[in-house]
Amino acid sequence: MKTFIVERYAKTGAVRAAERPEPEVEADEVLVHVEAAGVNPLDSKIAVGEFKLILPYRPPFVLGHDVAGVVARVGSAVTHFAPGDTVYARPRDFRVGTFAELVAVKERDLALKPSTISYEEAASLPLVALTAWQALVEKGRVSPGQKVFIHAGSGGVGTIAIQLAKHLGAFVATTTSTANVEWVKSLGADVVIDYKSEDFEKVLSGYDLVLDSLGPDSIVKSLTILKPGGIAIGIGGPPDPIFAREIGANAVVKVATRLLSRKVRKTARRLGVRYSFLFMTASGAQLREIAALVDTKAIQPVVDRVYPFDETLDALDYVDTGRVKGKVVVSMG
């Protein structure tokens, strides 16, 4: 079958087209014929080796973290899906590989595709929607009337997180570039800060939760806008010791996370607020909840561009520019 693989970890040229055998299907897995696959910054970060300590994939391996498609066949222990079902998923770590004609997905990671949207729109959702859900619902427990600040409102996570936070009843602030201010407001943001002309930490205060995708320097500033007891959830790092324990990391990774997050954790303690690192996990149950919100129009997918599958490398290059509004998708067409 046609795939795009990481042949070796490298700054350039890590990903190439390749023919690979069809994946083996374990008893608790579903073989999905891929109709479309989402493209994420995570794909490039994996390919260059940025996550080797946390996710030690052994090249060559098929890349890709989002899928929408049709069930081709099911394993002997699968009970909730049948051939012909239309589905979507973010396969769990170490079972990724959606830049392919077929991918095997654990039954627990899979959900029926929202019925009101296309395969391309569905493929744009799993990773970013699960990230937003786990930050705002599972970890942040956002409730009506709370104030939520979401960095990078025009990005993949940002566009979905804004809509989900508004659905949860929150007052939402975000950042974006000058050209996207009005567009991001149309997603539901109450306050939009043009990061080219304003510093968010000088404008905002008294927030219950910050969802920060930008990394350590931004996280330290984000902590200062929280009210006492508030929480900053980082999806761009730094990873913290709690995360290291949750994944059963070795001693080297545990020490590294402690050192990398020390400044952020120290600042949080001084300000009387909390910091938590989030590395999204696969969940078919949460995708079912998200599908219901999509079908009732509480959440709308945001797709910037759709590339043919053969142009997956071009799609990755476009994502790497950092100028994407929402998501990029490759389609089997």
Note down, in words, how this protein is organized:
- GO terms for molecular function: oxidoreductase activity.
- This is NADP-dependent oxidoreductase.
- Pfam families: ADH_N, ADH_zinc_N_2.
- There is one protein chain.
- This protein has 333 residues and is α/β, with parallel strands linked by helices.
- The chain folds into 2 domains: 2-125 and 301-331, Quinone Oxidoreductase, Chain A, domain 1 (Alpha-Beta Complex); 127-277, NAD(P)-binding Rossmann-like Domain (Rossmann fold).
- It contains 12 helices and 16 strands.
- The strands form 3 sheets. Strands 3, 5, 6, 7, 8, 15 and 16 form a 7-stranded mixed beta sheet that branches.
- The longest helix is centred in the middle third of the chain and has 14 residues, at 126-139.
- The two termini are 16 Å apart.
- The model has no long low-confidence stretch (mean pLDDT 96).
